[in-house]
Amino acid sequence: MRRSLLLVPALAAASSVPAFAAGAGAGPNFATLTSAVDFTSTSNAIMSVGALAIGLTLVVLGIRKVMQMIRGA
Q1: What is the pLDDT of residue 52?
Q2: CA distances from 31 to 21, 23, 25, 34, 51 (A)
Q3: On the CB side of 67, how many CA atoms lie within 13 Å of its CA?
């Protein structure tokens, strides 16, 4: 009895999903907003920050390695 009480709302929710999906269509179109923005400078800035972070990490690792060599000698 309890299982059938849980099955009815689940079945009703599952049967209404296609109706909501059909009404949604393809979603909003943001082409007018994104076409006015030039993302090349943004992507260049993100790439340069990433390169800077990797470079800094390599410098720190190099300093640690040199310090280990000095202590071990």
Answers
A1: 97
A2: 22, 21, 16, 5, 31
A3: 6
Virtual torsion, Cα 4, 10, 12, 18, nearest 10 deg: -150
Dist. CA 71–CA 56, nearest whole Å? 23
Decide: helix, strand or coil at residue 72: helix
Three-state SS annotation for 4-66? HHHHHHHHHHHHHHHHHHHHHCCCCCCHHHHCCCCCHHHHHHHHHHHHHHHHHHHHHHHHHHH
Per-residue pLDDT of the chain (73 residues; tens, 9 = 90+): 566 566 666 666 666 666 555 556 678 888 888 888 787 888 899 999 999 999 999 999 999 999 999 998 7
